[in-house]
Write a structure and sequence with these properties.
single chain; alpha/beta; Rossmann fold; 4 domains; seven-stranded parallel sheet
């Protein structure tokens, strides 16, 4: 145990936590804090976290108690933890589960509380009133169709409900996991994958069955879902980001289970085939013929007797799918993501409508165990050419970001990096299509954007995996759910403002472990002394929380 002077954190009365990065206890403290606090900023020497109601409720749902959190803070804190913080932690953690949602013998849904005053408070709350059928001094009855809406309202007013109303079983689906995959490779669930499935399933009780599993890209989130399907033995609808990802899901399911081609359907813009396990895209679900028209394919949720819905990349869930999910609360729901960060701030809707975080492992833990590749991150600051500096100086805010992002000098730095990694599998990733097309022309390399047909995308990904193509230019369509196991170098030339989840996903493209144990290298090119550099600090925030550090270099400096 370090002396008080060597302890790395300072807990402040405004709910912030300062964490010193120098010292032997830094990593242990960081991993402890991340379970119940949100990282706000991470300069070189002092990281700042904030304790929020949602961070505490996720911790409570994962089994952490107020006493355990208080003990973690005391263990690592230089000074006494402010009493108001300990009181707020106890109060906030105590709110999770004060309200419970049940189903009675007649199938009616009701909210219960031990405190009659809390029920009285809710009965008179203007946002809760529309959903109340009737009430007693300890219960509020609601209509089954409002199960999700009520949960969303309650978390927004500070009382997250613990949903114990149970689930429909769905149609049965006999399925077994293969010990030798169809590809010929040995297959078995890893320890952390089994733990994630156990945490989600909760022995089949009503305390399980809905929630989010957070694992880094390359750690096998798809396998966790396959394990959940096997555990539940029920017909399943999988929702994912695009058609390429959809077909990778289908391939994984067929490779690792006893299910056949007839058992696994595709529901996309190209094919509308419903089977006991159906994989669909968010794009097809949110398609409508006119701006204000109905969603043409929402009836997919009713076209089979689903027992489980899997939401891949749940941090990207479109708003219309949130609305649909509000009415699907009787179905088991599994969310998968590398980061619960949502740039639209709707993390509380994920908590309410998909479920709380059920399982999470720090990325560096899996790196140390060899399940994901070791990665080195480098930010290279590139000066703007003189003319671009003039253009930048007089531009408005949005134009400034585009000028800085598409800095033509970045192409020269790209060329130097590519030259240093001769023989490696390299991805150049960016936001702006004009910039990417110029790079594709410069390197005479293939490019994948949203304009590229799905079949052509799949052909290029296959050629990259085989080594026929060593350099691939990709837009943000490759951010998510694309399996490129041999990619070991990524060069980010532009990003989406300060998107933390995008940075995490882009690093994730190169995190699958390499057969030769090679280190993955992630380069982020930013224009020096511009808003591009400012946004990069925020983009890096989530990865810093996971234990990655960026080596900062200036272009063309020895």
């Amino acid at each position: 145990m370090p002396s008080d002077a060597d302890k790395p954190i300072i807990v402040q009365s405004d709910r912030s936590i300062l964490l010193e990065t120098d010292g032997p206890s830094f990593e242990d403290a960081r991993d402890a804090i991340a379970a119940f606090a949100e990282l706000i900023k991470s300069p070189e020497h002092i990281h700042t976290y904030r304790i929020t109601p949602l961070s505490l409720w996720n911790a409570a749902a994962a089994g952490l108690t107020a006493a355990q959190i208080a003990e973690e803070l005391r263990q690592f804190s230089k000074y006494d933890v402010p009493p108001n913080i300990l009181a707020e932690i106890e109060e906030t953690i105590g709110r999770y589960g004060r309200l419970k949602l049940h189903k009675d013998a007649e199938g009616r849904l009701y909210i219960s509380a031990d405190d009659p005053l809390l029920i009285t408070q809710l009965v008179h709350h203007k946002d809760v009133k529309p959903y109340i059928e009737e009430h007693t001094d300890r219960t509020i009855f609601i209509t089954p169709g409002d199960r999700g809406n009520v949960k969303s309202v309650l978390i927004k007013i500070g009382f997250p409900v613990e949903d114990l109303a149970g689930y429909v079983a769905g149609a049965p689906l006999p399925v077994e996991l293969l010990e030798t995959a169809a590809s010929g490779k040995p297959f078995g669930l890893r320890k952390y994958q089994r733990e994630a499935i156990d945490a989600f399933h909760a022995q089949g009780t009503n305390r399980g069955g809905s929630g989010v599993v957070v694992l880094p890209c390359g750690a096998g989130k798809t396998v966790v879902a396959i394990g959940a399907i096997h555990r539940l033995q029920t017909q399943t609808l999988v929702l994912t980001t695009n058609t390429v990802a959809l077909r990778q899901w289908k391939q994984e399911i067929l490779d690792k289970t006893t299910l056949t081609e007839d058992d696994v359907g595709e529901y996309s813009g190209d094919v509308k085939n419903i089977a006991p396990v159906t994989v669909a895209t968010y794009q097809v679900l949110t398609y409508r013929r006119g701006k204000d028209g109905p969603f043409a394919h929402f009836d997919l949720f009713d076209k089979a007797n689903w027992g489980l819905i899997v939401y891949d990349e749940v941090h990207l869930l479109p708003a219309p799918v949130f609305r649909a999910t509000a009415s699907l609360q009787a179905l088991r729901r599994l969310g998968l993501t590398a980061t619960l960060v949502r740039e639209d701030g709707r993390e509380d809707d994920v908590f309410s409508l998909i479920g709380p975080k059920k399982y999470d492992v720090p990325w560096k833990v899996l790196e140390h165990q060899g399940w994901i590749a070791q990665a080195e991150c480098t930010e290279i600051r590139v000066p703007l050419p003189e003319q671009e500096r003039w253009n930048y100086a007089v531009a408005d805010k949005r134009a400034k970001f585009r000028i800085a992002s598409t800095n033509p000098a970045k192409a020269v730095v790209c060329e130097e990096i590519v030259g240093q990694h001769n023989g490696d599998h390299i991805l150049i990733i960016g936001q702006y299509l004009d910039q990417l097309k110029e790079l594709a022309k410069h390197f005479n390399a293939p490019i994948i954007t949203g304009q590229k047909a799905t079949k052509k995308r799949e052909e290029l990904y296959k050629a990259f995996r085989s080594g026929e193509i060593k350099l691939l230019i990709v837009s943000k369509v490759a951010n998510f759910a694309i399996d490129l196991p041999d990619a070991n170098v990524a060069i980010q030339v532009s990003g989406t403002f300060g998107s933390r989840q995008e940075e995490a996903q882009r690093l994730g493209r190169i995190l699958r472990p390499k057969q030769n144990g090679a280190v993955a290298r992630f380069y982020s090119l930013v224009s020096r002394d511009t808003c591009d550099q400012d946004y990069s600090v925020k983009r890096q925030l989530f990865l810093t929380e996971q234990g990655y550090r960026y080596d900062i270099r200036n272009a063309w400096e020895a």
